[in-house]
Design a protein that fits this description.
single chain, mainly alpha, 6 helices
Length: 208
């Protein structure tokens, strides 16, 4: 009887493990089009805003980032209609929480800088030995890199982790060296390396 209980427990553990792996594979497959969608949106809008900034009025065109989110959400809604269904799972819930936290942090930072633009809050802080300047592009790149790398770890996707590390750390340090409008090219590169490349890699692998 004790042996049967042990076998039953072992089999239950195997079933749970198989379900987790199955949901991880399905979520990874489903994520490819979402990665490409959001990556293309960020890439295109970053280049568009950079062009308009240089030729048609300056940083006021950053307002188009709001339109980018609308396009991204619309694309995500269209993609969701063709995704392979997957039931509630620990993996899916965890990945969703990672990007929800990312969105909360970036949304709060965006609000912070919006208040700065309205003259209600300064992003230039006086310290005992100088000034602290907050670089928005560096912060977004770093937060994105952390979220992307964590997602790759949860999904056990090494390529996604590598891309997340390169995009996050590379974007953080490079943006510190460039003036305002040039940082938009950093955002485009971060989107290309951290979103589009992993998305295309997953999509092509699933097509085989």
């Amino acid at each position: 009887m004790e042996e049967n209980k042990n076998l039953t427990a072992e089999r239950s553990l195997e079933i749970i493990t198989e379900q987790i792996e199955r949901s991880r594979r399905t979520i990874t497959q489903n994520s490819s089009k979402s990665l490409i969608c959001w990556g293309v949106c960020v890439f295109v809008f970053a280049l568009l805003i950079a062009y308009l900034w240089k030729n048609c009025g300056g940083p006021v065109w950053n307002i188009l980032w709001g339109a980018m989110w609308l396009f991204g959400c619309l694309g995500e809604w269209l993609i969701s209609k063709h995704k392979e269904p997957v039931g509630p799972s620990f993996v899916g819930k965890t990945v969703g929480q990672v990007w929800a936290i990312f969105g909360i942090f970036i949304g709060a930072i965006g609000l912070f800088f919006c208040l700065n633009g309205l003259g209600l809050l300064s992003v230039d802080f006086t310290l005992p030995h100088g000034h602290l300047y907050i670089n928005l592009t560096s912060i977004i790149s770093l937060c994105f890199g952390i979220a992307s790398t964590t997602t790759g770890a949860i999904l056990k996707n090494a390529f996604m982790q590598i891309c997340g590390l390169i995009a996050g750390l590379g974007g953080f340090f490079v943006a510190l060296l460039l003036p305002g409008v040039e940082q938009l090219y950093v955002m485009a590169a971060v989107a290309l390396v951290g979103l589009i490349l992993p998305g295309v890699a997953v999509y092509l692998r699933n097509k085989k």
